[in-house]
Amino acid sequence: MAYVDHAFSISDEDIMMGTSYTVNNKPPIKEIALAVALLVFGALAIVLGIAMAVNQVGGDRAHGIFFAILGGILFLPGFYYTRIAYYAYKGYKGFSFANIPPV
Predict the structure, then answer these.
(1) Backbone torsion region of residue 56, taken as left when φ is above 0, otherwise alpha when ψ lies between -120 and 50, otherwise beta
(2) CA distances from 37 to 15, 50, 63, 69, 98 (A)
(3) Domain extent listing, the chain
(4) Are residues 47 and 25 in contact, defined by beta-carbon separation less than 8 angstroms?
(5) Interval 33-44: pLDDT, tens
(6) Ramachandran angles phi, psi of 82, nearest 5°
(7) Alpha carbons 76 and 85: distance in angstroms, whole number
(8) pTM for the full model?
(9) What φ, ψ does residue 96 adopt, rounded to 5°?
(10) Where are the alpha helices (DSSP H) in 1-60?
(11) SS3 of 22, please?
(12) Can you tell me the distance from the alpha carbon of 86 to that of 100, in angstroms, rounded to the nearest whole number?
């Protein structure tokens, strides 16, 4: 007679096999609001920075270029997470609200 270790066997009588679970896929409001705010303020800073560089506001173009670069740094994560939230809302495959990190 062979020895069989039942401690690691999977059977239909396991507790976890009978239970069902639901995936909590509710939209994280604070995270989406932050992403949209970064997107909007980044786009505004890029436009204002370019306008400042063209009109030489502040004495030279460096102030406007710096402001546009700062706007780009704000815009990129805002666009990325807003896009994830939009695609998760629309139900595209591979996108979920769980992909947005908590604040």
Answers:
(1) left
(2) 45, 20, 23, 17, 20
(3) 27-91
(4) no
(5) 999 999 999 999
(6) -65, -40
(7) 14
(8) 0.72
(9) -145, 155
(10) 15-18, 29-55
(11) coil
(12) 11
